[in-house]
Amino acid sequence: MMKPKKDITIYDIARKLSLSSATVSRGLQNHPAINKNTRKKIQEAARQLGYRHNNFASNLRKQKTNTIGVMIHELNSNFITSVLAGIEKVTTEAGYDLIIAHSSERYEKEAANALNLFHKRVDGLIASLAFDTTNLEHFLPYEEKGIPVIFFDRVEEQGDSTKVIIDNYACGYQATRHLIEQGCERIVMVTASLQRNVYAQRHRGYEHALRDNNIPYNKDLVLIKDLSEQCGVEAALQIISMNPMPDGAFITNDFSAAVCMQTLKEHGIRIPQDIAVVGFNNDAISKLVEPQLTTIDYPGMDMGEIAARNLVNHLKGVSNIKTTNTIIVNSELIVRKSSLKRGSK
Fold first, then answer.
1. Virtual CA dihedral for 156, 165, 318, 120, nearest 10 degrees?
2. Stretch 19-29: mean pLDDT
3. Using CA atoms, how far apart are residues 72 and 209, in angstroms rounded to an integer?
4. 172 shares a domain with 287
5. Do 288 and 179 have their domain in common?
6. CA distance 128 to 102
7. Continuous segment of H or E residues that includes residue 89
8. Which of 110, 116, 263, 342 has the most beta carbons within 10 angstroms of its beta carbon?
9. 0.90 exceeded by pTM
10. Which string of DSSP letters, residue by residue, matches 252-291?
11. Comparing 325 with 297, which gets the higher pLDDT?
């Protein structure tokens, strides 16, 4: 069996060129103190010998890895994909690499990921919490070591951690009020675990919009689901079985809303004439379904960029995330045909 080749070091280059190791090191870094021709010779010799710079050893000496950890709760989501794109854009420009871990919506996996990224010596962490996460104890090692952590979207609202969110309460209120303005009086809400801040706040907005418009809150019209494809089918079948059937639906995920609409249509339910529908996220699917889906624009790219920029600025000493508790990203209701009951025949 062939032995793996030994890594080439700066000392090998120095021997080949009869130069000091310090000169070679500076030449490889294009240091202006080294003559241009000497720099060229050093870099050419490095290429010929197959030299690779050892970032790991260099970073350990500097007590930093130029790596940022990202913890997400799922991968199969347009929203998360756009958040990651925003994070990647900012961190790449700033010279940081990313290590991405996902929890599959499980606290145990999230806690293991947090420990794993801590041991990989990430310089900072950007995290979104799993459905069943109830405390932040697994992030304590970061706090104790002074490693900055920014939470986004799924956050723990109590406490002083830095978080980037939208105003989920206002969005829930706005979506529900829009359905009421379209003449809806029996509005079903399809959402996920109310343990998580995003869904709890959207639910609170829904509840208050009903109350402010003298519509009684009915817990039987709140369907707690996992917001999957199957959830959309189940929600539609539950809606059809209700007597009287709801005339409005606020579904806090566009994909689930699209599947729900499709299932309703397959059972002869007209949208928006029989039931007006509002989704959440402004995913690409909201423009592909028929009728096009009214939704809340949740700007994932902006959220990713804002979280990453605040973390990078903190790491570079430009600002301190400890001085900012909550950053709210703008969001808005985008009205399309799925909810326009008034004037529809």
1. 50
2. 85
3. 31
4. yes
5. yes
6. 9
7. helix 78-93
8. 110
9. no
10. SSHHHHHHHHHHHHHTT--TTTT-EEE-SB--THHHHSSS
11. 297
What's the CATH number where 225 sits?
Answer: 3.40.50.2300
Query: 78 vs 72, 98, 133, 236, 298, CA distance in Å?
Result: 13, 19, 22, 22, 11
Residue 1: the pLDDT is 47
Domain interval for residue 265? 168-297
Q: What is the pLDDT of residue 306?
A: 95
pLDDT at 55: 55
Would you place residue 92 in the very low, low, confident or very high pLDDT band (cuts 50, 70, 90)? very high
77 in Cβ contact with 304 (< 8 Å): no
Residue 321: how many CB atoms within 10 A of its CB?
20
pLDDT band at 59 (very low <50, low <70, confident <90, very high): low
Which residue type does 314 have? H
Angle at 26 between CA 24 and CA 28, to 5 degrees: 70
Sign of CA dihedral 191, 192, 193, 197: negative
Determine contact, residues 65/125, Cβ cutoff 8 Å.
no
Q: Return the structure tokens found at 141.
A: 């090692």
Distance (Å, rounded) from C-alpha 133 to C-alpha 122? 22
Residue type, 311: L
The pLDDT confidence band at residue 131, using thresholds 50, 70 and 90, is confident
Looking at the structure, tell me whether residues 208 and 130 fall in a common domain: no
Residues 6+ apart with CB under 8 A from 204: 169, 172
Q: Given this model, what pLDDT does residue 12 score?
A: 86
pLDDT higher for 113 or 345?
A: 113
Quick one: 153 and 198 in the same domain? Answer: no
Let me know if residue 206 belongs to a domain. yes
- In one-letter notation, the amino acid at residue 273 is Q
291 and 309, same domain (yes or no):
no
